[in-house]
Design brief:
It is elongated and about 75 Å long. A 7-stranded mixed beta sheet has the order 3-2-1-4-6-5-7. It is built from 13 helices and 7 strands. Strand 1, helix 2 and strand 2 form a beta-alpha-beta unit. With 382 residues, the chain is α/β, with parallel strands linked by helices.
């Protein structure tokens, strides 16, 4: 535990948390490797919220740096702190959903653990919610808000592009739909929680779009703030997160007909076709192998490529490791083989009816893709 002015500091914080009253606000903190930030975030939030009855729920994805241990130690001192430690699951959106579903507080806020979000505006956000807003967004791009020194020039440019893309599907005015800092009425969250995507890292735009398409758009208010530099640790931003966001965006653009994971699975399949054809060329032209041997080799290489790419991209939140990885690969081969049979059966049946090669081939490919996606999601990455 950090010692800040000794026991007197601990006593001061205990006196600010509304002990003895059910929480009016739950502050959800998704975390991965944030042990050096969590307690400072708690102290700053306690000071900001003053006499408000609140609780902090840290949803930790089994951080190897011991974040959960730090939170559990804090919980022995502060009655309004608890930890949800997740094993075998990763992902910011799903962590937020689990945290928000774990509280009885009528209002829930989501804030990053890295201290880039300004916890001092939480009282203003809560006031706007109490005044009638369903959702209050901490915005960097309206009023006196700004990205400050929290984003590099490259990341700021990328964030602004993602914001413009999000505005295309939001369906209502919002200056910062990519914000990870917001407060929502718990009943409005629970109304759409089963329909929210578990993949990716931007739950806010998902919450807005899903509510609107369910016939109950959220009343949105905003509070500006200045985005700060990360306090400690490393940023979680990487190309995988960008790809997952694009999958979510495409899914919402389609009206939710296609889940993000299916779109990513299909994207992986497209790259697999490229790998297949390249391998086929190497074996037939480069090695002089006959077509049957080359086709078998290309199929195995492409299936292996698809498996590992899906394991690290489409299903990053349930990634297989160790023995499960080996058995998963073997099962993936078997499932894809069955998918190939389904492909041939459907394509042959349609060709006999319509005698159109392209239509029959496309139908077979779609059938095998849907089959492979559904079965591998149920059995390989369950």
């Amino acid at each position: 535990m950090m010692q800040v002015d000794g026991q007197a500091r601990v006593d001061d914080l205990r006196n600010t948390i509304g002990t003895g009253h059910p929480p009016q606000l739950a502050v959800i903190v998704p975390s991965f490797n944030e042990r050096d930030n969590i307690e400072l975030l708690y102290e700053k939030t306690a000071i900001a919220l003053g006499e408000t009855a609140w609780e902090m729920i840290v949803v930790d994805d089994n951080s190897p740096d011991g974040t959960a241990d730090v939170v559990n130690e804090m919980a022995r001192v502060y009655a309004n702190v608890r930890c949800i430690r997740r094993f075998g699951r990763r992902g910011l959106s799903s962590a937020c959903v689990e945290g928000m579903a774990a509280t009885a507080a009528p209002f829930v806020a989501v804030i990053d653990a890295d201290l880039q979000h300004d916890e001092a505006i939480l009282p203003q956000m809560l006031d706007k919610a109490l005044a009638g807003a369903d959702l209050v967004v901490g915005t960097r791009f309206a009023g006196e808000g700004s990205a400050g020194e929290g984003l590099s020039a490259a990341r700021l440019s990328g964030s602004q592009m993602a914001t413009r893309m999000a505005a295309m599907i939001a369906g209502q005015p919002i200056s910062d739909p990519m914000s990870g800092f917001f407060l929502v009425r718990r009943d409005r969250f629970e109304a759409v929680a089963p329909k929210l995507a578990s993949d990716g890292f931007k739950i806010l735009i998902d919450l807005i779009v899903t509510s609107a398409r369910g016939g109950k758009p959220l009343t949105i208010a905003e509070v500006p703030y200045v985005f700060r530099p990360r306090h400690a640790g490393e940023s979680k931003m990487n190309p995988l997160i960008v790809i997952q966001y694009l999958g979510l965006w495409a899914s919402k653009l389609s009206g939710g007909v296609l889940p993000p994971s299916f779109l990513l699975f299909g994207l992986v399949g497209v790259t697999g076709v490229v790998v297949h054809m390249a391998t086929l060329g190497v074996f037939t032209s480069g090695l002089g192998a006959n077509f049957v041997v080359s086709q078998i080799a290309a199929t195995l290489v492409a299936m292996t490529w698809n498996f590992f790419l899906n394991n690290n991209l489409t299903y990053a939140d349930r990634r297989l490791r160790g023995r499960k990885l080996v058995f998963g690969l073997i099962g993936f081969y078997a499932i894809c083989a069955l998918g190939g049979i389904a492909n041939i059966s459907v394509a042959s049946g349609i060709y006999e009816l319509r005698h159109q090669t392209f239509v029959a081939g496309l139908a077979g490919a779609v059938m095998s893709s849907v089959f492979n996606y559904a079965v591998t999601r149920a059995f390989t990455w369950k």
